[in-house]
Design goal:
- The complex is a heterodimer of chains A (354) and B (285).
- With 354 residues, chain A is α+β, with helices and mostly antiparallel strands.
- Chain A folds into two domains: 229 residues, Rossmann fold, CATH 3.40.50; 105 residues, OB fold (Dihydrolipoamide Acetyltransferase, E2P) (Beta Barrel).
- Chain A is built from nine helices and 20 strands.
- In chain A, helix 4 packs across helix 5.
- The longest helix of chain A is centred in the middle third of the chain and has 18 residues.
- The two termini of chain A are 47 Å apart.
- Chain B has 285 residues and is of the alpha/beta class.
- Chain B has a single domain, classed as Metallo-dependent phosphatases (Purple Acid Phosphatase, chain A, domain 2).
- Helix content of chain B is 20%, strand content 25%.
- In chain B, strand 1, helix 1 and strand 2 form a beta-alpha-beta unit.
- The longest helix of chain B is centred in the N-terminal third of the chain and has 13 residues.
- Classes of the chains: A alpha+beta (354), B alpha/beta (285).
- The interface between A and B is large, with 34 and 38 residues.
């Protein structure tokens, strides 16, 4: 079965797990739906199972018995890679160094027997779209890393794949280029309307590119949600700490209040248990007058970061508390300060199973 | 720019090869007790400290092949206290091997028995070079595509390749005529990716070492008989009972893709170990 070209297919990953010879299970059976045209990011540290999941979708790997991959409702589990109509972009460009930019982009079309004129037309569209027009006749080894990755992307989408799979495509580039290309990639993916599955360990990339993010840890899905949900409503401590900076406070609860060394904070849900673990993002903490505040501490360090200041505070919680405030606030190490957090910014986390 | 900082511990992979297990009581070439040879090999493997993380069997698990032989092999392997995986050789059958080991993570639902095993910071790519009904080796088109695609992903992870047929000439003519026929296809894929750190093969029942496409490439010795070292085709194809051995590949994390070293380990019990130094630290002399 071959998927009709030119539209984003809806992907369903159904109970797909993976166990290696020797018995190591790298992916617990997982079920995921990706809507047509959606960009889904698989995010997690090395060894979390995200690349295994991508290999299963690509057809480079079979899921354990019971797992199925569906494209637009069709079972693709036993369909080999070359008949799945997936486009792939990798961290290693895997371009043909001895061929021109145009020949690289048109390679898949040529293999499929697309006539020369049609090929040239499509190559013309793609160099425009990916911002490499004018470089058509250059050889790959005459291009910069960023340009090469644009060629790889143009080549992957040239054949109008139903699904585009990207495996850490920006990891090999330097930070400034990575950020610029990330913005361009975001626009491009949205204009193409291809269903995209993007694997990365970089949470900033995930936030910017994903319609939804799947956070993975140790072969399991830790949370699925929009970037906002993942950031503001992490399902557990792993997600809270993996995405952005987070203060994790674990303390006794009395009358709906978290009892801290420097005072108290409201817990958004009255917890039955005697202790609670909450997460507070550093930028949701305001500095107020110490006298009137329900929580107070002493400034340990102040770091000026241009647009804002990063402050650490001792004696408020058991551990050092991280706070980010506008650059207009005047505080110094040793100042006694009050801290205020809106109740909705205090996120209750489930108790750790360990 | 590979990153190995996720894992700081060495990874140890024992490789054993060319077991040629027959039905119980039958000897290979009417002479070699391959079952007893495997049992000795298993005893040495079980005695290794620290224990290897995985044992890879690089083909020719059985001899004929028959279902009965795979059953015998599985019986013998119950004595192995380490996890193991395997690629088929020319003496194996894809179908019989797939049904003997149905739980392994084969990449394809049918055909070649390729596997990619993620072992901590390493990817082990087990390539099926067998050609049904033929003694020589070849990587078929789906396998080559799979290899290229799999190496394209996870560019930062070091990868070790295991296959039965060596992709190079050893100088032993009758074996060289049945080595990997499309070694050039393998070389062109390896050259396109930086992350391959070792190509480990079997088939020749001798320890042999070369560089292939710029990568260290080994042949693992066998636990039973060795192919006779006849580098000038002076005699008929023959075998000899030489000291049996296997390989232990140890990967150490570090700069770039880390370092892989291969130890050859003799099978059997030997005198020792004896200390070099006495109780106060003086060399015993």
């Amino acid at each position: 079965m071959t998927v009709p070209a030119g539209h984003g297919v809806a992907v369903r990953i159904e109970s797909c797990g993976k166990t290696f010879a020797g018995g190591t299970r790298v992916l617990e059976p997982a079920t995921l739906e990706i809507a047509s045209g959606e960009t889904l990011v698989l995010l997690g540290p090395s060894g979390c199972g995200k690349t295994t999941m991508l290999r299963i979708i690509a057809g480079l790997e079979q899921p354990d018995a019971g797992g199925r991959i569906m494209f637009d409702g069709n079972d693709m589990t036993r369909v080999p890679i070359e008949r799945r109509n997936v486009g792939m972009v990798f961290q290693s460009y895997a371009l043909f160094p001895n061929m021109s930019v145009a020949d690289n982009i048109g390679y898949g079309l040529k293999i499929r027997g697309v006539p020369r004129a049609k090929r040239a037309e499509r190559i013309g569209e793609l160099v425009q779209l990916t911002g490499i027009d004018g470089l058509e006749d250059r050889r790959i080894d005459q291009l910069s890393g960023g340009q090469r990755q644009r060629v790889a992307l143009a080549r992957a989408v040239a054949v109008r794949p139903g699904v585009l799979l990207l495996d850490e495509p920006l990891t090999a580039l330097d930070a400034a280029l990575r950020e610029r290309l990330r913005g361009d990639l975001n626009q491009l993916l949205r204009s193409l309307g291809i269903t995209t599955i993007y694997v990365t360990h970089d949470q900033a990339e995930a936030m910017e590119l994903g319609d939804r993010i799947v956070v993975m840890s140790k072969g399991r899905i830790a949370q699925i949600g929009s970037p906002r949900e993942i950031y503001f409503e992490p399902a557990n401590r792993f997600v809270a700490e993996f995405i952005g900076a987070a203060n994790i406070l674990e303390a006794p609860v009395e009358n709906g209040q978290l009892m801290l060394p420097g005072g108290r904070l409201p817990v958004d849900k009255p917890a039955n248990q005697a202790r609670a673990t909450v997460m507070i993002r550093p930028e949701t903490i305001d500095i107020v007058n110490a006298d009137a505040a329900s929580l107070a501490g002493t400034v340990e360090t102040v770091r000026f970061a241009g647009d804002r200041m990063r402050i650490t505070i001792r004696e408020a919680a058991v551990n050092m508390l991280a706070v980010e405030v506008p650059n207009t606030i005047a505080v110094e190490a040793g100042d006694r300060i009050g801290l205020s957090v809106a109740p909705e910014a205090i996120r209750l986390l489930p108790a750790e199973c360990q | 720019m590979p990153v190995n900082d996720m894992s700081t511990k060495p990874i140890r992979i024992a490789q054993i090869s060319d077991l040629h297990i027959k039905a119980p009581g039958k000897r290979a070439y009417k002479r070699v007790d391959t079952a007893q040879a495997l049992s000795r090999c298993i005893a040495t493997l079980n005695g290794l400290t620290p224990a290897p993380d995985l044992v890879v069997i690089s083909g020719d698990l059985v001899d004929t092949p028959t279902e009965h032989e795979y059953e015998h092999l599985k019986d013998l392997l119950t004595g192995l206290r380490l996890p193991f995986a395997a690629v088929p050789g020319n003496h194996d059958s894809r179908d019989l091997m797939r049904s003997a080991f149905p739980d392994w993570a084969y990449a394809f639902p049918s055909g070649a028995l390729n596997q990619c095993i993620e072992l901590d910071a390493l990817d082990l790519l087990l390539l099926d070079s067998s050609v049904p009904g033929k003694p020589h080796g070849e990587l078929d088109v789906p396998t080559l595509k799979w290899l290229d695609g799999t190496l394209s992903m996870s560019a930062q992870r070091p990868a070790l390749l295991f296959l039965h047929h060596p992709p190079f000439l050893t100088g032993i003519g009758h074996m060289d005529r049945q080595n990997l026929r499309n070694a050039a296809d393998l070389a062109s894929i390896i050259r396109r990716h930086n992350r391959v750190q070792l190509i480990a093969s079997g088939h020749v029942h001798r320890a042999v070492l070369t560089a292939f496409a710029g990568i260290t490439c080994t042949i693992c010795p066998a636990p039973n008989h060795a192919v006779a070292l006849d580098l000038a085709e002076l005699g008929e194809p023959s075998f000899a009972i030489e000291p049996p051995a296997f390989h232990l590949h140890v990967w150490f994390p570090g700069e770039g893709y880390g370092t892989i070293v291969t130890h050859q380990i003799p099978i059997g019990e030997f005198d020792g170990p004896h200390p070099f130094f006495d109780a106060v630290g003086n060399l015993i002399d």
